[in-house]
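Rotation project, supervised by the postdoc (A.L.). Task for the rotation student: set up a whole-complex structure prediction and record inputs and outputs verbatim in this book. Inputs entered:
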Amino acid sequence: MGIIRHPKDFFAGLMFIAFGAAALAIGSGYALGTAARMGPGYFPRILGILLVLIGAAVALRSLKLKGNRIEFGSLKPMAIVLGSVVLFGLLSPHIGLILAGVMLIVVSSAGSSEFRWKEALISGIVLSLGAVLVFIWGLGLQFSVWPPLLTGAR
Amino acid sequence: MDLVANLMTGFGVALTPINLLYALIGSLLGTLIGVLPGIGPVATIAMLLPITYALQPVSALIMLAGIYYGAQYGGSTTAILVNLPGEASSAVTCIDGYQMARRGRAGAALAIAALGSFFAGCVGTLLLASFALPMTELALKFGPAEYFSLMILGLIGAVVLAHGSLVKAIAMIVLGLLLGIVGTDVNSGLARFSFGIPELTDGIGTAVVAMGLFGFAEILVNLEHKTDRELLTQKLKSLMPNREEIRRSIPAVLRGTTIGSLLGVLPGGGALLASFAAYGLEKKVSKHPEEFGKGAVEGVAGPESANNAAAQTSFIPLLTLGIPPNAVMALMVGAMTIHNIQPGPQVMTSNPALFWGLIASMWVGNLMLVVLNLPLIGMWIKLLTVPYRMLYPAILLFCCIGVYSLSNSTFDIYVTAVFGLLGYIFSKLECEPAPLILGFVLGPLMEENLRRAMLLSRGDPTVFVTRPISLVMLALAAGLLLIIIAPNIRRKRADVFVEET
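Outputs recorded:
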């Protein structure tokens, strides 16, 4: 494993340093003010410094402590699931809740190793109709059910 | 008798048909997600947060609270019948509950778990009601310096009692605090960390962060490995425990309720910690420790009472001090802010119907759970046959709709996806997301109180150690940190959580 003996902690430390440094960099333009009259930059600056310091401690400690390797399984399901969510966000205002819902269920189901077309399609239709029933008719949420272009809404 | 009068007000609110209905919906939903492994109360409450906007504030809180304690009931069913923790806090119930089921005592185990939970729930609710007044009076004496120190104590307590690496947990809190201040600064009107995106000037929603970190990330982690969940269908005979089982459970229920009530109030405590501690205690005080792991009834009665007691008492710091002790309570803060209620000591005086109504509803909800759940167990078992490949797309759909409805914008959906990815990375790096949520909720409050305290002291930071209440809290926080650094306790702490899923 070389010099990094606890990879999970090492990368966690780097991540914290990155977040802290980003906060400091972005927040560098915010007015600091004084201790008595703190500007918008004061608190973020404290937090950013803290995060960098703790991150550095975690990363340095990983050279001494021993830990397991980071195990990755297949990354495909993650890409499919997150992709289907983003797609839902992009499409739902244009094609309405029912079609977008069916799309979300079918596409995201493909992330499972036991994907079945028919089952996913049926469950998508049932769940989307159920969602319309509960959320739009039941709770009165604002959401176009069908494509706005077809119904002429908006 | 103020308490009686207040509780009467509470029952007056909780027993209206509409609130009874929401208590029922909450308890049933809670049981449902408690039974199903792979979805917990944090993700569910996050999912439902947006839609509670359409409800009355009392009804909304009653329903969300029902989900939390309902999940404690549901979790035990799966643990006993299938040897899987339906809920993390039921992980220890698997050990002896499942062994009881194998010996044909599944019915008795379920009944004892439910009745023990009911007893614990009643005690927890009573404690909540009786501690509410004195705690609130104390909290009203707090100035900004005290509040700041209290939050430090709360956050430190949360990581000390949580599992995993202490340093990483503190880093997660700081990261949460940073994420919490994204958006427009109230004092200067400056939009901080918004990257010029108008949607971000309002800050990031608590529900968005929680859904991403808990709901989405959980799915991503689960899907990575092929899972085959095996199902053992158990025939349920009688639900009646025999005399021997009853005799042995009663003291265990009492002990579990006590330890659960105590741990629930502590920051970082809550149902999960309580059940683990109660199991350890039962094993230690038992006259026949060799039976544990082979179906000891105390191993079911103790932890199941403890997790339910803790689920109730963890509302005490939230409702009286406005400080959430765990991730679920952090979401309750979110629910209250949606309805423009600032959690804290003033809720009781400015909104007594809501305050006491919520407390009374917990008792009503617990009663419903006992009465409804035992007969419904057959139905809950059937639900377990729904495969995960059909469950997670449904979770995704409800999350997306919920997130969208927060502000009718698809932008929040993308932010949730980003937090899902972040949560996945956290899980790979073994960084617990719960402290982040606590920090996230407390971020703006902490900054506000720090600013005010320093303004009042004219920039003198010693204000935090010269005011006695504040000093005590900081000393407690420092003490906690010192204790945890001591090596032998550190080892113990790792032991308690070996069963963690």
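Student's summary: DSSP finds five helices and no strands in chain A.
Supervisor addendum: Chain A touches chain B through 74 residues (CB under 8 Å).
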